[in-house]
């Protein structure tokens, strides 16, 4: 074991690859970058290194050539991958099904299983599999570790994991609530406990991961007991382009009376709903600007977003029988003070009081509740890549 050890973390999506070279022990990210618009006419590779940003534009045929270009860019700044002390490649895998809930060393069998789970996550797992294949080719002697987004929610109690549908259908097709963003919820809940100087096993908490995708979780003494995303990452909160909860009858109606196909409905739910569907913008900063300019649609989108959030906070407060901490994380959760204020407004009777000054000022990991608040309200920046790097390092060192 050496403190110079690094882990290459790869998050491979359908048309992009995010990567970081991280020292798992110190938490330092030596390099990070992004390959995007793979397969489109104008691709882009970006590398952050020593406070500098390098960029290369041009067609990127496929994931393989994308990762190769990223490796070349790293070599050009004096850090070729084979000489970067990489002890493992950690892969973010969206769906682990019922089988995978621990960081797992990837061999041919595991790769095949992850591929088979593509039925459950057709938008994500195939791209994750490509990421593993490409990394295996690029670094054939380095162990590949799969870290699953569903893993932390493996512990959901049956009443929280079960949909009330025909049990035979559910069994045959693996229909249950899996939950996603697990790496973030786990990492943030552990940091939150540290900020409070308590063990995760001593406290009950709610974590609100509000990024482009968004989900909430209820965590009792370190164990996830409920979460808003379900069989897919479509359920629950309002997101950038996904609307979260919807009466399934709406989809039947659109199919029967509007002649929408399954693909039409898929596109509606994944890409034309949420903030974008209601206001025409999915980026929270753009939404806020429109609200300031008096845009009523943007205002309604914001109000629906906050309404759904409050509804789940209420549900989880009851499920947990009160909480010690409520923590905001991810792009919106870390930066949008108005969302934090409005999500927890008027909850004094539940012991939840935000301090406006702490909420609006300050940066990084911090407490934003008033001293009089019996529930600690926190902001904790998420770092899924570091969590994956540490999981991967732990596994290969064990
Ligand atoms: P992803 O799910 O893609 O990882 P992020 O966690 O990066 O997403 O969150 C992206 C969201 O965070 C976007 O809606 C973006 O507008 C929002 N966001 C980022 N910075 C700010 C800010 N300063 N104020 C409000 N929203 C922000």
Describe how the helices and strands are arranged.
Blueprint: E1 6-12, E2 16-22, E3 29-36, E4 43-49, E5 52-58, H1 63-76, E6 86-93, E7 104-105, H2 108-116, H3 125-138, E8 144-148, H4 158-161, H5 167-173, H6 182-196, E9 204-210, E10 214-220, E11 223-227, H7 248-257, H8 262-271, H9 274-279, H10 284-292, H11 296-320, E12 325-329, H12 330-335, H13 337-343, H14 356-360, E13 366-367, E14 376-379, H15 384-397
Helix pairs in contact: 1-3, 10-11
The protein binds adenosine-5'-diphosphate.
Cofactor: Mg(2+); Mn(2+)
Enzyme class: transferase
GO biological process, one term: acetate metabolic process
Task: Please give a quick description of this structure.
The chain has 15 helices and 14 strands. It is of the alpha/beta class and 398 residues long. The chain folds into two domains: 6-148, ATPase, nucleotide binding domain (Nucleotidyltransferase, domain 5); 198-379, ATPase, nucleotide binding domain (Nucleotidyltransferase, domain 5, 2-Layer Sandwich), CATH 3.30.420.
Describe this structure in words.
- The chain is α/β, with parallel strands linked by helices and 398 residues long.
- The protein has 2 domains: 6-148, ATPase, nucleotide binding domain (Nucleotidyltransferase, domain 5); 198-379, ATPase, nucleotide binding domain (Nucleotidyltransferase, domain 5).
- 39% of the residues lie in helices and 20% in strands.
- It is built from 15 helices and 14 strands.
- The protein has helices at residues 63-76, 108-116, 125-138, 158-161, 167-173, 182-196, 248-257, 262-271, 274-279, 284-292, 296-320, 330-335, 337-343, 356-360, 384-397; strands at 6-12, 16-22, 29-36, 43-49, 52-58, 86-93, 104-105, 144-148, 204-210, 214-220, 223-227, 325-329, 366-367, 376-379.
- It has an 8-stranded mixed beta sheet, sandwiched between helices. Strands 11-10-9-12-14-13 form a 6-stranded mixed beta sheet, with helices on both faces.
- Strand 1 (6-12) and strand 2 (16-22) form a beta hairpin.
- The longest helix is centred in the last third of the chain and has 25 residues, at 296-320.
- The protein is globular, with a radius of gyration of 21 Å.
- It starts with 5 loop residues before the first strand and ends with a helix.
- The model has no long low-confidence stretch (mean pLDDT 95).
- Adenosine-5'-diphosphate binds next to helix 10 and helix 12.
């Amino acid at each position: 074991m050496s403190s110079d050890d690094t882990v290459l973390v790869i998050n491979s999506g359908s048309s992009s690859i995010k990567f970081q070279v991280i020292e798992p022990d110190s938490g330092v990210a030596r390099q990070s970058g992004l390959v995007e618009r793979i397969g489109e006419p104008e691709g882009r590779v970006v590398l952050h290194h020593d406070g500098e940003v390098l960029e290369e534009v041009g067609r990127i045929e496929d994931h393989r050539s994308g990762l190769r270009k990223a490796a070349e860019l790293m070599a050009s700044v004096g850090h070729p991958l084979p000489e970067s002390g990489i002890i493992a490649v950690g892969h973010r895998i969206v769906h682990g099904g019922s089988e995978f809930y621990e960081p797992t060393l990837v061999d041919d069998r595991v790769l095949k299983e992850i591929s088979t789970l593509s039925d459950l996550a057709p938008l994500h797992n195939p791209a994750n599999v490509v990421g593993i294949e490409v990394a295996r080719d690029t670094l054939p002697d380095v162990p590949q570790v799969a870290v699953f987004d569903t893993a932390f929610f493996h512990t959901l109690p049956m009443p929280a994991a079960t949909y009330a549908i025909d049990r035979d259908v559910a069994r045959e097709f693996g229909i249950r609530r899996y939950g996603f963003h697990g790496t973030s919820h786990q990492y943030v809940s552990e940091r939150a406990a540290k900020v409070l100087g308590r063990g995760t096993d001593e406290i009950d908490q709610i974590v609100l991961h509000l990024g482009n995708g968004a989900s909430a979780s209820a965590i009792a003494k370190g164990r996830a007991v409920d979460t808003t995303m379900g069989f897919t990452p479509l359920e629950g909160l309002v997101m950038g382009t996904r609307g979260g909860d919807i009466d399934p009858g709406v989809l039947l109606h659109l199919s029967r009376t509007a002649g929408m196909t399954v693909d039409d409905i898929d596109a509606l739910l994944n890409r034309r709903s949420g903030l974008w569907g209601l206001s025409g913008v999915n980026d929270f900063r753009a939404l806020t600007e429109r609200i300031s300019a008096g845009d009523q649609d943007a205002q309604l989108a914001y109000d629906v977003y906050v309404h759904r959030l409050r509804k789940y906070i209420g549900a989880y407060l009851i499920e947990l029988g009160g909480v010690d901490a409520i923590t905001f994380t991810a792009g919106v959760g870390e930066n949008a003070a108005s969302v934090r204020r409005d999500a927890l407004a008027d909850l004094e009777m539940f012991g939840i009081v935000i301090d406006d000054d702490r909420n609006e000022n300050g940066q990084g990991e911090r407490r934003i509740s008033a001293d009089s608040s019996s529930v600690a309200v926190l902001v904790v920046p998420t770092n899924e890549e570091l969590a994956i790097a540490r999981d991967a390092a732990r596994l290969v060192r064990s």
